[in-house]
Amino acid sequence: MFNIIICKNYEEVSAEAFKVLKEVVVKNETPVLGLATGSSPIGLYKNIQADHKKGYSYSKCITFNLDEYIGIDKNHEQSYWTFMHENLFNHLDVKEENINIPDGNSDNPKQACLDYEEKLNKYEVDLQVLGIGSNGHIGFNEPGTAFDSKTQIVELDEQTRKDNARFFDSIDDVPTHSITMGIESITRAKKIVVIATGENKADAVYGMIKGPVTTDLPASILQRHDNVVVILDNDAASKL
Ligand code: F6R
Question: Is residue 154 classed as helix, strand or coil in its secondary structure?
Fold first, then answer.
Protein backbone atom coordinates (compact mmCIF):
# COMPACT_ATOMS: atom_id res chain seq x y z
CA MET A 1 0.00 0.00 0.00
CA PHE A 2 1.37 3.39 -1.00
CA ASN A 3 1.05 6.65 0.83
CA ILE A 4 2.04 9.15 -1.89
CA ILE A 5 3.23 12.63 -0.95
CA ILE A 6 3.83 15.12 -3.77
CA CYS A 7 5.96 18.14 -2.95
CA LYS A 8 6.82 21.29 -4.82
CA ASN A 9 10.59 20.97 -4.61
CA TYR A 10 13.51 18.86 -3.41
CA GLU A 11 13.74 20.78 -0.15
CA GLU A 12 10.18 19.84 0.75
CA VAL A 13 10.72 16.25 -0.39
CA SER A 14 13.72 16.00 1.94
CA ALA A 15 11.84 17.55 4.86
CA GLU A 16 8.95 15.07 4.40
CA ALA A 17 11.37 12.14 4.23
CA PHE A 18 13.03 13.37 7.40
CA LYS A 19 9.64 13.47 9.20
CA VAL A 20 9.06 9.82 8.27
CA LEU A 21 12.53 8.79 9.46
CA LYS A 22 12.45 10.79 12.68
CA GLU A 23 9.13 9.26 13.69
CA VAL A 24 10.63 5.78 13.30
CA VAL A 25 13.82 6.74 15.15
CA VAL A 26 11.91 8.24 18.07
CA LYS A 27 9.52 5.28 18.33
CA ASN A 28 12.17 2.54 18.51
CA GLU A 29 14.62 1.89 21.30
CA THR A 30 17.32 0.70 18.88
CA PRO A 31 16.16 1.88 15.46
CA VAL A 32 17.35 -0.23 12.55
CA LEU A 33 17.65 1.85 9.39
CA GLY A 34 18.21 0.65 5.84
CA LEU A 35 20.03 3.39 3.95
CA ALA A 36 20.68 4.28 0.32
CA THR A 37 23.30 6.31 -1.50
CA GLY A 38 22.75 8.44 -4.62
CA SER A 39 21.43 11.95 -5.00
CA SER A 40 17.86 11.27 -3.79
CA PRO A 41 18.55 10.93 -0.03
CA ILE A 42 21.21 13.66 0.28
CA GLY A 43 18.64 16.24 1.45
CA LEU A 44 17.24 13.77 3.97
CA TYR A 45 20.76 13.18 5.30
CA LYS A 46 21.28 16.95 5.61
CA ASN A 47 18.12 17.16 7.72
CA ILE A 48 19.38 14.34 9.96
CA GLN A 49 22.71 16.13 10.37
CA ALA A 50 20.92 19.37 11.29
CA ASP A 51 18.77 17.51 13.83
CA HIS A 52 21.86 15.99 15.43
CA LYS A 53 23.55 19.39 15.50
CA LYS A 54 20.58 20.68 17.48
CA GLY A 55 21.28 17.96 20.05
CA TYR A 56 19.36 14.81 19.07
CA SER A 57 21.42 11.65 19.47
CA TYR A 58 21.44 8.92 16.82
CA SER A 59 23.79 6.75 18.88
CA LYS A 60 21.26 3.94 19.28
CA CYS A 61 20.79 3.50 15.52
CA ILE A 62 21.96 0.45 13.63
CA THR A 63 22.30 0.96 9.89
CA PHE A 64 22.48 -1.30 6.86
CA ASN A 65 23.35 0.12 3.47
CA LEU A 66 21.82 -1.30 0.35
CA ASP A 67 24.87 -1.70 -1.80
CA GLU A 68 28.51 -1.13 -2.64
CA TYR A 69 30.56 -1.26 -5.82
CA ILE A 70 32.85 -4.25 -6.27
CA GLY A 71 36.52 -3.67 -6.94
CA ILE A 72 37.05 -0.22 -5.52
CA ASP A 73 38.59 0.34 -2.13
CA LYS A 74 36.24 1.51 0.62
CA ASN A 75 38.33 4.69 0.87
CA HIS A 76 37.97 5.40 -2.87
CA GLU A 77 36.23 8.74 -3.33
CA GLN A 78 33.33 7.10 -5.18
CA SER A 79 32.81 4.12 -2.87
CA TYR A 80 29.47 4.03 -1.10
CA TRP A 81 31.38 3.70 2.18
CA THR A 82 32.93 7.12 1.47
CA PHE A 83 29.61 8.55 0.31
CA MET A 84 27.85 7.49 3.50
CA HIS A 85 30.60 8.79 5.75
CA GLU A 86 30.85 12.13 3.96
CA ASN A 87 27.12 12.70 3.65
CA LEU A 88 25.99 11.29 6.98
CA PHE A 89 28.06 9.25 9.40
CA ASN A 90 30.97 11.68 9.88
CA HIS A 91 28.41 14.20 11.13
CA LEU A 92 26.51 11.92 13.52
CA ASP A 93 27.14 9.87 16.64
CA VAL A 94 26.17 6.50 15.10
CA LYS A 95 28.73 4.00 16.36
CA GLU A 96 31.07 2.73 13.63
CA GLU A 97 30.42 -0.88 14.75
CA ASN A 98 26.71 -0.32 14.10
CA ILE A 99 27.29 0.81 10.51
CA ASN A 100 26.93 -2.01 7.99
CA ILE A 101 27.94 -1.56 4.36
CA PRO A 102 28.58 -4.51 2.02
CA ASP A 103 32.29 -5.23 1.56
CA GLY A 104 32.92 -4.58 -2.11
CA ASN A 105 36.60 -5.14 -1.76
CA SER A 106 36.52 -8.62 -0.26
CA ASP A 107 38.72 -11.36 -1.74
CA ASN A 108 35.60 -13.48 -1.69
CA PRO A 109 32.61 -11.33 -2.68
CA LYS A 110 30.24 -14.33 -2.67
CA GLN A 111 31.06 -14.99 0.97
CA ALA A 112 30.74 -11.26 1.69
CA CYS A 113 27.15 -11.45 0.36
CA LEU A 114 26.32 -14.45 2.56
CA ASP A 115 27.83 -12.76 5.61
CA TYR A 116 25.90 -9.56 4.96
CA GLU A 117 22.61 -11.36 4.53
CA GLU A 118 23.23 -13.39 7.68
CA LYS A 119 23.84 -10.27 9.72
CA LEU A 120 20.86 -8.49 8.21
CA ASN A 121 18.70 -11.45 9.13
CA LYS A 122 19.48 -10.98 12.79
CA TYR A 123 17.60 -7.67 12.70
CA GLU A 124 14.33 -6.31 11.52
CA VAL A 125 14.76 -3.12 9.51
CA ASP A 126 12.35 -0.53 10.91
CA LEU A 127 12.67 1.82 7.95
CA GLN A 128 14.29 1.25 4.58
CA VAL A 129 15.20 4.39 2.62
CA LEU A 130 15.15 3.87 -1.15
CA GLY A 131 15.82 5.82 -4.30
CA ILE A 132 14.65 4.41 -7.62
CA GLY A 133 16.66 4.02 -10.81
CA SER A 134 15.35 5.47 -14.06
CA ASN A 135 14.89 1.81 -15.10
CA GLY A 136 12.96 1.00 -11.91
CA HIS A 137 15.83 -0.64 -10.06
CA ILE A 138 15.96 -0.69 -6.27
CA GLY A 139 19.33 -1.14 -4.65
CA PHE A 140 21.29 -2.41 -7.63
CA ASN A 141 18.61 -4.96 -8.47
CA GLU A 142 18.28 -4.35 -12.17
CA PRO A 143 15.31 -5.34 -14.35
CA GLY A 144 15.03 -9.12 -14.47
CA THR A 145 16.17 -9.70 -10.88
CA ALA A 146 14.11 -12.34 -9.05
CA PHE A 147 11.77 -11.02 -6.38
CA ASP A 148 13.06 -13.63 -3.90
CA SER A 149 16.71 -12.52 -4.30
CA LYS A 150 18.94 -12.06 -1.26
CA THR A 151 22.18 -10.09 -0.97
CA GLN A 152 24.02 -10.85 -4.17
CA ILE A 153 26.62 -9.86 -6.75
CA VAL A 154 25.12 -8.12 -9.74
CA GLU A 155 26.35 -6.79 -13.03
CA LEU A 156 25.33 -3.17 -13.46
CA ASP A 157 23.06 -2.45 -16.34
CA GLU A 158 24.33 -0.12 -19.08
CA GLN A 159 21.71 2.52 -18.19
CA THR A 160 22.78 2.51 -14.53
CA ARG A 161 26.44 2.85 -15.46
CA LYS A 162 25.54 5.79 -17.73
CA ASP A 163 23.44 7.36 -14.95
CA ASN A 164 26.36 7.04 -12.52
CA ALA A 165 29.11 8.08 -14.96
CA ARG A 166 28.63 11.68 -13.80
CA PHE A 167 30.46 10.79 -10.60
CA PHE A 168 33.49 9.31 -12.38
CA ASP A 169 36.05 10.70 -14.85
CA SER A 170 34.54 8.59 -17.62
CA ILE A 171 32.05 5.76 -18.07
CA ASP A 172 34.99 3.34 -18.33
CA ASP A 173 35.82 4.07 -14.69
CA VAL A 174 32.33 3.12 -13.45
CA PRO A 175 32.58 -0.33 -11.86
CA THR A 176 30.81 -3.14 -13.71
CA HIS A 177 29.63 -5.10 -10.67
CA SER A 178 28.30 -4.43 -7.21
CA ILE A 179 27.04 -6.19 -4.11
CA THR A 180 23.43 -5.36 -3.36
CA MET A 181 20.82 -6.41 -0.89
CA GLY A 182 18.35 -8.52 -2.84
CA ILE A 183 14.73 -7.63 -3.46
CA GLU A 184 13.55 -9.93 -0.70
CA SER A 185 16.16 -8.56 1.72
CA ILE A 186 14.90 -5.03 0.97
CA THR A 187 11.18 -5.73 1.17
CA ARG A 188 11.45 -7.48 4.56
CA ALA A 189 11.68 -3.98 6.09
CA LYS A 190 8.67 -3.02 8.21
CA LYS A 191 8.33 0.33 6.47
CA ILE A 192 9.85 1.74 3.28
CA VAL A 193 10.26 5.33 2.11
CA VAL A 194 10.97 5.91 -1.58
CA ILE A 195 12.36 9.29 -2.61
CA ALA A 196 12.24 10.30 -6.28
CA THR A 197 12.62 13.65 -7.98
CA GLY A 198 13.01 14.82 -11.56
CA GLU A 199 11.44 14.03 -14.87
CA ASN A 200 13.85 11.16 -15.62
CA LYS A 201 12.19 9.20 -12.80
CA ALA A 202 8.59 9.78 -13.95
CA ASP A 203 8.26 6.56 -15.98
CA ALA A 204 9.83 4.42 -13.25
CA VAL A 205 7.57 6.01 -10.62
CA TYR A 206 4.54 5.36 -12.78
CA GLY A 207 5.57 1.73 -13.26
CA MET A 208 6.22 1.26 -9.55
CA ILE A 209 2.79 2.53 -8.55
CA LYS A 210 0.47 1.87 -11.47
CA GLY A 211 2.17 -0.67 -13.70
CA PRO A 212 1.98 -4.45 -13.47
CA VAL A 213 4.01 -6.15 -10.75
CA THR A 214 6.85 -7.45 -12.88
CA THR A 215 10.54 -8.21 -12.53
CA ASP A 216 10.96 -5.96 -15.60
CA LEU A 217 10.48 -3.07 -13.18
CA PRO A 218 11.87 -4.21 -9.81
CA ALA A 219 10.26 -1.38 -7.78
CA SER A 220 6.80 -2.64 -8.81
CA ILE A 221 7.18 -5.32 -6.09
CA LEU A 222 6.52 -2.53 -3.60
CA GLN A 223 2.83 -2.73 -4.58
CA ARG A 224 2.78 -5.91 -2.46
CA HIS A 225 4.30 -4.25 0.63
CA ASP A 226 1.83 -2.91 3.16
CA ASN A 227 3.68 0.20 4.34
CA VAL A 228 5.41 2.27 1.66
CA VAL A 229 5.62 6.07 1.68
CA VAL A 230 6.55 7.56 -1.72
CA ILE A 231 7.79 11.14 -1.66
CA LEU A 232 7.96 12.87 -5.04
CA ASP A 233 8.37 16.26 -6.61
CA ASN A 234 5.95 17.35 -9.32
CA ASP A 235 8.26 16.18 -12.13
CA ALA A 236 8.66 12.65 -10.77
CA ALA A 237 4.89 12.52 -10.20
CA SER A 238 4.04 13.92 -13.63
CA LYS A 239 2.95 10.60 -15.21
CA LEU A 240 0.74 9.42 -12.33
C1 F6R B 1 21.76 3.59 -4.05
C2 F6R B 1 20.89 2.69 -4.77
C3 F6R B 1 20.23 3.05 -6.04
C4 F6R B 1 19.75 4.50 -6.11
C5 F6R B 1 19.10 4.78 -7.46
C6 F6R B 1 18.70 6.24 -7.60
O7 F6R B 1 22.27 2.98 -2.87
O8 F6R B 1 20.74 1.62 -4.32
O9 F6R B 1 19.13 2.19 -6.24
O10 F6R B 1 18.83 4.72 -5.09
O11 F6R B 1 20.01 4.47 -8.48
O12 F6R B 1 19.85 7.03 -7.60
P13 F6R B 1 19.77 8.62 -7.49
O14 F6R B 1 19.15 8.91 -6.15
O15 F6R B 1 21.19 9.09 -7.57
O16 F6R B 1 18.92 9.08 -8.61
Answer: strand
In a domain, 239, yes or no: no
Question: What pTM was computed for the model?
Answer: 0.97
Alpha carbons within 13 A on the beta-carbon side of 37: 22
What is the span of the domain harbouring residue 30? 2-233
Specify the DSSP element, H or E, that contains 44.
helix 42-53
pLDDT tens-digit profile of 91-122?
A: 999 999 999 999 999 999 999 999 999 999 99
Q: What is the tens place of the pLDDT at every residue in 49-70?
A: 999 999 999 999 999 999 999 9
> Does residue 240 belong to any structural domain of this protein?
no
User: Pocket residues for ligand 1 (CB within 6 Å)?
Assistant: 36-40, 66-67, 131-133, 137-140
Ligand 1: centre distance to CA 201 (Å): 11
Looking at residue 62, which CATH number applies to its domain? 3.40.50.1360
Q: Is residue 68 part of a domain?
A: yes
CA angle 175, 179, 182 (to 5 degrees): 135
* Residue 223: inside a domain: yes
Predicted confidence band of residue 167 (pLDDT cuts 50, 70, 90): confident
Question: What is the whole-number distance in angstroms between the Cα of residue 38 and the centre of ligand 1?
Answer: 5
What's the structural domain count of the chain? 1
Q: Residue 100, Cβ neighbours under 10 Å: how many? A: 17
Which residues are catalytically annotated?
67, 135, 137, 142
